[in-house]
Amino acid sequence: MQIKRLISLMGIVCLSLSAYAQKKEFKFGKIALEEFNTKPFGQDSAAAAVKLFDVGECYFQYNDRTGFEYIFERHVRYKIVNKNAYDLADFQIPLYKSSTGNVREDLIRMEAATYNLEAEKIVTTKLGKESKFTEEFNKNYQIKKYTLGNVKEGAIIEYKYAIRSPFTFQLKGWSFQGNVPTLYTEYNVKIPEYLIYKPSFNGYYKIKQTKRETINAHYVAGLNSNAIYTQYVLENVPAMKSEPFITTMNDYITSIDFELMATNYPGDIYRNFTGTWPKIIGGLVEDENFGLFVKKNSVAKTLLPTIIKGETDTLKIANLIYNYVKSNVKWNENYSLYSSETNPKTILDKKTGSTADINLLMLMLLKEAKIDANPVLISTRSNGMHPGNPIISKFNSVILSANIGNKDIILDATDNDHFIGMTAYESLSHQGFYVDLKNKVGVWTTIEPTHRNEKIYNYNLTLDTENKLKGSMVQYYKGYGALSLRNRYRSNASETEFVKSLKKDKQGLEIDKYKINNLNDFDNLLSEELTVTIEDNVEEAGNLVYLNPLLYERTKENHFKHETRTFPVDFGYAMRETIRSTINFPAEYEIEKLPKGSAFKLPDNKGTFSIQFLTQDKVVLVTSIIEINKSVFSPEEYFDIKELFKIIVEKQAEQIVFKKKS
After folding, report:
1. Residues 435, 360 contacting (CB under 8 angstroms)
2. Where are the alpha helices (DSSP H) in 37-186?
């Protein structure tokens, strides 16, 4: 037994020192006994699983019919520590295909298995045929889904697969970090000398380039060729923990991507595709689904007079065009950098389109009206932050910028509830690349929102001796607060359904009357008027009565729980929330305890919180105001924003204590 324990301990030590890094190859199904003893390490000691290794390779083949294609191979192995990691046994492989389906990626190899240690012997459970599924996710993706069986605490699972892809403009990238700690991860890329790719690095940890050498490669019979072989390695990588208020976790996961920059084939000229911004801009200007799409203005010449009807004020003309596009083309919920059609009239006839279809159509009309407007290329929040290098594939959508009255104004007609100066929350990626189509130049520009998320809640309630609250709730919304309410209201089948949704998760709330004001009037304040009865929100203990006057709108939880944070806090926009609660209490009650007011302010006025408690006669007035005055806080400012919300949660939780007169 002592010998076995010694071997076991030696195995743990070896693995903690990344024994995998010493191996020259990783063989599927070849499991060492000591791997079953692997434990999570460092700050992830409580993790539910450990990724033992994750090794990938990308290399090229030549197809006489279609040209170069690449093979992407991945081999990954996990140690399951407890049942919270059982979902790792369910995995999927997305396969990309063209919109027509004629060109697609193919899964050419796949094997997977579960291993359990029973009586010092390894028992293998291979992937069964009944555990394989194929889903046609959308017109561009087919997904292969797999479920491994016999997964238990202490098991090891692994899978290995290979994909053939003709889409060589972008190679498969590699993530060196995941949601469990990783002992060892490696990516090997072998690129033909004729293809020049631009790597793009991302994340907090520095990736080690352990090899870069020229090797012999054979692509065409009888022709000797070379390839550039590069190896990237990272060891003992902590798990990536999800945090609130971010764009996408992919912005901060340590990873690498590749985009084709140029080709240099024998007997051909050096062809630069996206290597520089001038090259990218020139390509956009001449693209039939971008610059040339905007130039096809015959439909604009016909439509414009009926849209503007003789109006001469530039801002009013822009508004008329903006409202026309919003009303006549509905967003199909697809983000795109290029229009789906080459003729704007087709988009109008279909009455639906992507972000590019809608906003480039609007651009065509604005230019016909002689308004100075141009496209702004963006990467949406879920698509991830653009690295800033001249890489066209990192953009996935387009909005507009118009100069009206010497002011640059953002335009995005993809939502009927947008107004001039507003873009969708998903498009609030803080910067975009402005393209001057006429002069063929571009520049990075801010797309910080000029509108805040603003909400004002006014409660006027009367507390009776049965501890019920009755009265009114009047709520006002501006900017992104108004957009959110309009979207929620319209997503319900009827007002009755919407009112029912308002009561969800609000204990004891009964809405006797409901009215929404200025739903379709963007020039006036959006508001809700509610007549309510509230039960089960007052606690009674002996002759004492406890009430939280902020009721449903108080901040109940501080979302910033970690001690430190290595990436920004991104709210998307600034915000202001005001709660004014007027509580009329019965003559039979008197105030036993009234919380003290307080105020808290971040450095440079980046955020503030104040709360006041006042009483006069039989009325208590409570006012709580939260202001977040910028959209993004750096990791260095994390402690400040965490402390602000800690105080908000604590102070808004305080209760008024009434005492019943004897």
Report:
1. no
2. none
